[in-house]
Amino acid sequence: MYQTFIEPFRFPFMARALAELMILGALAGTVGVLILLRRLAFMTDALTHTVFPGVVIGYLLAGEGGIFWGALLAAAATAGLLTLLTRNRAVTEDTALAVLLTTFFAIGVVLVSRESGYTADLTAFLFGRILTVTPQQLTETLAVTALVIAALVLLRRPLLARAFDADGAQAAGHRIGLLDLATNAIVALVVVASVRAVGTILVIALLIVPAAAARAVSDRIALIVPIAAALGALAGWAGLTVSYDASIHHGLRLASGGTVVLVLITCYLIALAAATTRRRRHSPHPAPQGAP
Amino acid sequence: MTAVGRAILEAVLLGTVGGLISVQITLRRLPFFTLAMTHATFPGVVLAAIAGINLYAGGGLFGVLIVLGVLALSRRPEQGTSTAIGIMLSAGFALGVVLLSARDGFSKDLTAYTVGQILTVGNSDLLAVTVVGLIVVGLLAVAGRQLTFRAFDPSAYAAAGYRPTAIDMALLLTVEAVIVVAVPAVGAILAVAVLVAPAAIARLWTHDITAMTAIAVAAGAGSGLTGVLISTSYDVAAGGAITVVTGTLFALSLAATTARNAVTARRGRRPAADPATPVTAGPQMKTVEETG
């Protein structure tokens, strides 16, 4: 056990990768509950793709340091354009998201395809470079985490009110527009902070799967949030270990980001199975469809 | 025929087929589902490539499994459809990536599958697109009216004695068939543009289904042609160029129709809300109500 789960992380680069992945896993797991409650899975997926041109332009203009700001600008542009597009009632939100997602991503692809190291850049974007995380990047991730957690703690009551009863929240005097903007900003910030290290594929999985798994085993927010955060962090650890072990001891190269996602999916399926058996044991009759 | 000639033919055919089916996809609010299916077809294509069987057969078979998975997951009361789709999407993509990463020439293959390689299509690819196109035309000719009826008033459709499950299955399988032929040409991520954007453009101009279909086909075929021409003359990725053209067309249509609506509203010939009324409240709805 020690050899498999602790040994690899004695290398500084592996330890940094583990720290980054666990922090992001916990952060994304927590924010994922908000995404689950507000049913924002499609918007989240769109954001992970629309930051791509920002990453490319930021990198072309200012090198590594420009990536974060480029991505942030692209995320802000996405949120703004989405609000603008859905104002036209002939454009439904899902259509607007699909068009924005593909167009932004395509702009990134067109720009990057002019470069010579085209395929490698695209791979880095889709997977991230988790093994080359610098101490400075870790500090940045911690700062974003602190900011997002602080915002969530401060806004937890209005955000929950908005998620469960929009009309009630408005009647209670909460500003719906501002709350939605805050939600979008929180999701965008997590996407931007993680995309360079872990890549798009992993970001979307970290934001959706842990919260869904936690939701399957409990229906109390006070339990769902810690379970989702712990699951996000632990899956990061397990995935990194499996991918390291496979490549060092078995000569099988497995992309670390993809492996983490597959670990998460396995946890999700186990949670679903556990929830099903528990429900069967508690009630001899199956729960009626549409029950909360 | 030269490679460029074949690429142009493929792009135009694909644009036509995508334009035809895209109207049904937007009417039924399926863009996110389509996105998930494109990502989930990707591991099927990779598995088929590893196993050395036909790429179309492998991708299609896997896509059908994913359709069944989403339908099964979204029946769970506590898991919304959007979460179920998000989970299948990340699971499918991660599986494809992990499978690919175990092979050599990883980055290059990955790029081919995510953003496509339209310049390498052969006669068999052209044949596949044509066959799928005939299937789409067949479906729309036989069941077009039924599909529209089902989209606008599901309960009346069921009450009229039709079988919703059968027609849904037929539509989803046809969408999957179009995805399978689109992925090699424009890639898993950008295929959504071919399958959603043409109808989004057409919907801005009209809410008559026949006119929408005609505009969608013209927009799809036109952006395919322009995209490949831009791609060959400026040496950028073809899938990206096609999508950027589609996105630009959407932005221009949005600007033009917004201006047109503003002008008609000022002249007072009809109320400003009319052109922007959602399609469900359009004239088709009334016909459906009369028949149902």
Topology:
The complex is a heterodimer of chains A (292) and B (292).
Chain A: H1 2-5, H2 12-38, H3 41-62, H4 66-87, H5 93-113, H6 118-127, H7 135-164, H8 166-171, H9 176-217, H10 221-249, H11 256-282
Helix pairs in contact in A: 2-7, 2-9, 2-10, 3-4, 3-5, 3-9, 4-5, 4-9, 6-9, 7-9, 9-10, 9-11, 10-11
Chain B: H1 3-27, H2 31-51, H3 55-73, H4 81-101, H5 106-115, H6 123-152, H7 154-159, H8 164-186, H9 191-205, H10 209-234, H11 238-267, H12 283-291
Task: Pick out its properties.
heterodimer, A: 292 residues, ABC transporter involved in vitamin B12 uptake, BtuC, 11 helices, 0% strand, disordered C terminus, B: 292 residues, mainly alpha, transmembrane helix (chain A), membrane (chain A), ABC_BtuC-like (chain A), Zinc ABC transporter permease AztB (chain A)
Distance from N terminus to C terminus of chain B (CA atoms, Å) equals 51 Å
CATH topology of chain B: ABC transporter involved in vitamin B12 uptake, BtuC
Task: Report Rg of chain B.
Answer: 20 Å
SSE order of chain B, one letter for each helix or strand: HHHHHHHHHHHH
- Would you state the CATH class of chain A? Mainly Alpha
Report the CATH superfamily of chain B. ABC transporter involved in vitamin B12 uptake, BtuC
Helix content of chain A: over 70%
Strand content of chain A: under 5%
Query: How large is the radius of gyration of chain A?
Result: 20 Å
Number of continuous helical runs of chain B: 12
Keywords (chain B): Membrane, Transmembrane, Transmembrane helix, Transport
Region (Disordered) (chain B): 265-292
Subcellular location (chain B): Cell membrane; Membrane
Pfam families (chain B): ABC-3 (PF00950)
Overview of this structure, please?
Chain A: It is a multi-pass membrane protein. Chain A: It is found in: Cell membrane; Membrane. Chain A: The chain crosses the membrane at residues 17-37, 67-85, 97-113, 185-209, 221-240, 252-275. The complex is a heterodimer of chains A (292) and B (292). Chain A is 82% helix and 0% strand. Chain A has eleven helices and no strands. By secondary structure, chain B is mainly alpha-helical. In chain B, α2 packs across α8 (164-186). At the A-B interface, α3, α5, α6, α9 and α11 of A face α2, α4, α5, α9 and α11 of B.
